[in-house]
Every structure is written in C-alpha cells, then in structure tokens.
Amino acid sequence: MHLFLRRFFQGGIVFFFTLFLFGQGIPPARAGFADFVLTYVCPIGRPGRPVLCPEATAVWYNFSAGDTYTPGQTISVDLSIGSDDHPVEPLCPFVSLGINNSNYTGDLIPGCYTARDLRGGTFLSFTMTAPLTPGPFTLNISVGLSGYRSPSVKSIPLTVVAAPVPAATISAAVIVAEAPTWWGRTLAYLTGRDHPAYASGPNATISTGGTARISWNALNATTCSIRRNGIPFSTALNGSQDFSGLLAGTYTFTISCSGPGGSANDSVQVIVIAPAASFNSTSFAPSSVNVGGSSTLSWSTSNATSLDAWCDGATAADNAWRQIGISAGSTSKTVTATAPMAGTTANCHLQAYGPGGASGVYNFSWAVNTAANDGVCAISHYNCGVGTSINNSDNFNDWTWTCQGSGAGLSPSCLENKTQTITASAGAGGIISPSGNVVVNRGTSPAFTITPSGGYNISSVIVDGWLNVGPVSSYTFNSVTSNHSIAASFTASCAPNQGSACTSALNVCGMTNTGSIDCSGTCSASTPADSLCPPPSPSVTFTINGSTGLVSLTRGDARNFAWSVSNASSCTAFSNDGWAGSKSVPNGNESLSANVTSNHTLQCSGPGGTTSKSVLVNVSCVPSTGNYGACNCTNETKTRTNTNAACLPWNEATDCSNAEKNICRTESYNWKEVAP
C-alpha cells in the first residue's frame, strides 16, 4: 500500500508525506486510487508576526483495499517526509498508527527537522502487528505536524485470514534393488520382490547391498524434521538422500513440518531383505565309479546357512547323501559307492538355503559300475586287444587312438608310427650300414655310414638316384617324410707293386697307402713326387637362411641362399622347389619363396673332383582333402588323399560306417561258385 500526503499554501511551507505499507512476506496488491483532506491550524510565521496557515491540506494515496494478512503477521510501514521551502523554525511531523481506531502507537517520529534536513527526503520505517483473530480490521494512520490543532486520520480496511495448513510428503525410490547377479534378479522376479532399477512407490524393498533414495517436500511450512527410525538426519524443507549398506530390517522415514497454519506429517518405509542363497561354484567328480570308489561333491555359497543333498527315489545313493549332514561352513563331501549301488545311475541334487530364500538346484548324475576292464592297445592302428577304439586320429607321422575300457577300467592311449623305407646299397670295394630295405619312422633322421675295403676309396654316394653327395663317409636323411635310396660306389687305391716312388708321393701328399692318389702309370725313382699329388677337392660352404641343417618355414617365407666355393670351376643346384641350374663361382646369393618341402643340393666340380652340400627345407602347409573313397571290405576302412600339392602326399583313413560294414559282410556271405 502507498500513501502520499502533501500540505501546501501560498507563500508558506509545502510539506510532503509519502507512506508505504507492506504486509511482511505477502506481495502488495493494487486495487485503485482515492484521496482525503487533512485540516488543522498552521500558525507558522516570523517571530512576533504569527501567520495562520490555510486549514486545508490535500492528501493523495494509492492503496489496495484487498490486502490480507495472517494472524499476528508483521505489517511494515515505510514513511517518506520532505519539504520544498526554507522554514526558520523546526518542522515536527507527527505519525501514529492504530488498529481499529485504538491502540495507537503514539508519535513514531523521533524528532523535528528543518527544511534543509528534509530537502533530500527522509525515510522512516515502522511496524504493526496484525490482529490474531481472522476477519476484517482497519489500519489507522494519524498524520500531522506537532503543535497544530489536530492530525488527520485515515482508516485503511485490511483483512486477517487464517494461515494455510502445511503439507508434507516423503517417498522412497529403489535405486539398486539387489546385487546384479543373474540368479538374484531371476529370484527377485519369481518371488515378486522389487528388482528393477529405479522402481519407486510409497514403500521400497531392497536387498542388503541395495540403495534406496528418500525424497521429501514441504509446503506452507517454516520448519521440518526428517528422521530415520526416530533419529533426525535433515531439517531442509525439501531434498533427497540415498541410503545404502543397510542391514536387513524395516526402516521408517518420517517428515514432521509446522507453520503458521499448523503442522503436517508423512512417513515411508524401506524394507531391507537378505539376498537369497546362491552357489558361487559347484562340481562333482568323478561321475562314474566302481563299487568301493568315491566321488566328491564340492561347492561354495553366498548368503547360505544350510544345504541339502538328495537323489531321486528311495535309493541307496539317496540314503548315502542324506546321511552326510552338509553344513554351510563346509565346502565338499565325499561318498563311497557300496555294493547295493552297483549297476545304478542316480539323479542327485544340491540346494542351499538362507534368510533371503533358497538357491537354485545344482543337479548331478552318479553312476556306479558293476566291474572294471582295462582297455588294451593292439599293434595295428585303430585296433584294441581289449576295449573299444575311440578318438581315432590320422596324424602326419603316426596314428593315435584310445582303447576305451569298460566300467571304471583304464582307457590307454595308443600309437602306431608311420614308416618310410630307405633302400641302402654298396658296390664292390666297401659296405654301407645299415643296408638293404631299412624301415624308419616318419619324421626321424636316420644316418648311414659308408666304409671302403682295404685298397679301395669311396668314389661317390648317390642319394635318391640322382643326387651325388660326393665321397662322404656318412650321410643323414633329415626328418624323413617319404621313401629314399642311397648307393655308395668305390674305386681301387694304389697297387702295392708300384714301388717306392709312389709310396714317397703318398707321404708327400700327406696320405697313406690307402689314400685317394691315382697311382695309375709307372712309378719310378726319377718321377717327381709332386707330380703324383692329385689336385685338391672342391671346398663348398652352403647355407639357407644362415643354416646348414634343417630349415623349417611356412609356405611363402623367404629362402635366402648363400654359398662360397674353392677349387671348383662350376656349380649346379638341385631341388624340387624351383632352385636349380648352374650357379656362380666362387660365391653367390639368391632369394626365393618357399613352396614345398624339398632337399636343396649345391654340387660343385673342379680338377680335384666333385663336392656336394645339402640343406633340407621343411615347408608346413594346410592339407586339403576330398571325400573318403569306397569302403575297403578287407579291413573295413576307407581313405581320402591330401589334394594340396604344396603338402607332402599322405592318406587319411577312417572306419567304414556300420551300414557300409553290413554291405561288405553281406556280400562276402553271398559269394559262391556256380557249376557250369
């Protein structure tokens, strides 16, 4: 409310009152405008010459007649006073406030002011208290100048209304209902407990380890107290707080608020339940035993206080497990099979229990055999002396299979090596060892020794019918994967009747009478000894990827060839993988990609003979096979062949199907000779 008062007269004092009324805490409304007249005697003048002021002073105000207040609410009144002339005597404004034309406050302005004091305007503030009883009332404003005939009074109608009743609400929302395990969520779904995240309602149910959010709000309240089971934790009029780590139980959250209009209360409950029992791990082994054998059931649990194990039906196995007395503190139990269980298979179960409910059921099968027979491997692959052949596997170097025993009998692993044949022979004048058709296991590296007889020297050693490896005294086949041949030849050494000159030449050359000097022709004392010394044999150094032995590569890898020779005039390369032909002397380097497994030989010749060096490159590859062929009724097997040309050739065999075996057996029974 705004009240403006102004006194004026010709040649005299002009005095202003500006008054503002506000209900504390309630925005003022504006309902219209009105005016009224204040009348009083104004004897203001110079000393000794009093002048009567006009009795009329105009007053304007702007006020909302609809202003309302609550019982006992404070009404704030702001007063602005000022003057626009220069009086010589003090001006003493007078303001008094009253309620319903009574209980006036008396003069609220503490003193008098000169016009100079008031020229900039002075603001004063006052307060009144609204009546305690609801209903209409008047605020009386008495305004004037001290010492004048009478102040003017303006009565302003106001209303006291009852304060609104506070409202308070509190709610709970489930943020995390329970531990996020698949079994916990499934159990919560089956039992109907709150389990989806962010579920909300008047009450909330969570498991230990879950989180609930408490939210509250108050209206028309000045104070609130929010408590958990009677213990306060907040006084905010609105807010929220998360609670987690609560033990199992029921927690009541309340809000109590008060205000001018009364008080309000609300409450909500959070129910914390223990999670259901669950298994962290379970195992049962062995699942099959003989009579007298034992099986062990192992487990670990969470939130469990007890466990129970049982088997279907009133069986001896069921009695054995139920008599164990499993407790939550244990982690395993062992049961021994007895004679009444022989020949039976029991379907058994394990379940855990706790305050939050039961776990899921762990099922296991327990078979007790009647007898045990160990499997026995036969000599030929995929055959068993005792037992059934299983896990048949045709590998590159061998065959493997398992002869499965019966009952709880042993099931040994069986192996038959695949073999290759190396035909070793020697000409007249020496021997090779071993000799003949030498059978070796595939993948091994057999060695052969060549020894000349007295009066003979090794002339050459030919491998696989074409590769001359020189007059070597030994040769090794590296990682045999196919059949090979090796043949040694010899030449006669110096004849013993050629005299001392030849013997002397032998000594000069650093050799014995069985050395390799060609002593053909006639030796005589006049023959220079040096002329009988043969030229030196070629010396060859040959590597692939820096190795002189076996080199294992994958198809496409680089083969880096390097060689150096001496006492040789020419070199020739041999291989099954593209490295062949004449090669440079005395040294050289080449690089080619590896494609297939092959032996690589560099053979170098000179006046002193021929020398060869070989390096085997084993190239791994992925076999490619087609369909199996027809069943061989003789051994009831069928084979298929590797079709990847990059791999070494090999065959894979497997048993014929039962239907194919039956056809073979039927055909063998139906053959007969019909007389003409």
* Low-confidence segments: 1-18, 20-47, 49-65, 192-200, 494-532, 668-676
Residues in β-strands, percent: over 45%
Separation of the first and last Cα atoms: 144 Å
Number of strands: 52
Mean pLDDT, to the nearest integer, reads 75
Spatial shape: elongated
| Helix percentage | under 10%
Our Rg estimate from Cα atoms comes to 60 Å
Return the structural class: mainly beta
Number of helices: 5
Main β-sheet, in a few words? 6 strands, antiparallel
> Strand order of the main beta sheet, please?
3-6-1-2-8-10
Describe this entry's structure for a reader.
The structure is a single chain. By secondary structure, the chain is mainly β. Helix content is 7%, strand content 49%. It is built from 5 helices and 52 strands. The strands form 14 sheets. A 6-stranded antiparallel β-sheet has the order 3-6-1-2-8-10. It has a 5-stranded mixed β-sheet with strand order 15-21-20-17-18, with no helix packed on it. A hairpin with an 8-residue loop joins strand 4 (42-43) and strand 5. The longest helix has 13 residues, at 658-670. It is elongated. Residues 1-18, 20-47, 49-65, 192-200, 494-532 and 668-676 have low confidence and may be disordered.
Question: What's a quick, concise take on this entry?
Answer:
The protein has 676 residues and is mainly β. The chain is elongated, with a radius of gyration of 60 Å.
How would you describe this structure in keywords?
676 residues, mainly beta, 6-stranded antiparallel sheet, 5-stranded mixed sheet, 5 helices
Topology:
Elements: E1 2-7, E2 15-23, E3 33-39, E4 42-43, E5 52-53, E6 56-62, E7 68-69, E8 74-83, E9 93-99, H1 115-118, E10 122-129, E11 135-145, E12 152-160, E13 167-176, H2 182-191, E14 200-201, E15 203-207, E16 211-219, E17 223-228, E18 231-234, E19 238-244, E20 249-259, E21 262-273, E22 278-285, E23 288-290, E24 294-302, E25 306-311, H3 316-322, E26 332-336, E27 344-354, E28 357-358, E29 362-369, E30 376-377, E31 384-386, E32 388-394, E33 398-404, E34 413-417, E35 419-426, E36 430-433, E37 436-441, E38 447-452, E39 456-463, E40 467-468, E41 474-476, E42 484-492, H4 499-508, E43 539-544, E44 551-554, E45 558-566, E46 570-574, E47 581-583, E48 587-593, E49 598-606, E50 609-620, E51 637-641, E52 651-655, H5 658-670
Parallel strand pairs: 7-12, 15-21, 23-29, 35-42, 44-50
Antiparallel strand pairs: 1-2, 1-6, 2-8, 3-6, 4-5, 8-10, 9-11, 11-12, 13-14, 13-16, 16-19, 17-18, 17-20, 20-21, 22-24, 24-26, 25-27, 27-28, 27-29, 30-31, 32-33, 33-34, 35-37, 36-38, 38-41, 39-40, 39-42, 43-45, 45-48, 46-47, 46-49, 49-50, 51-52
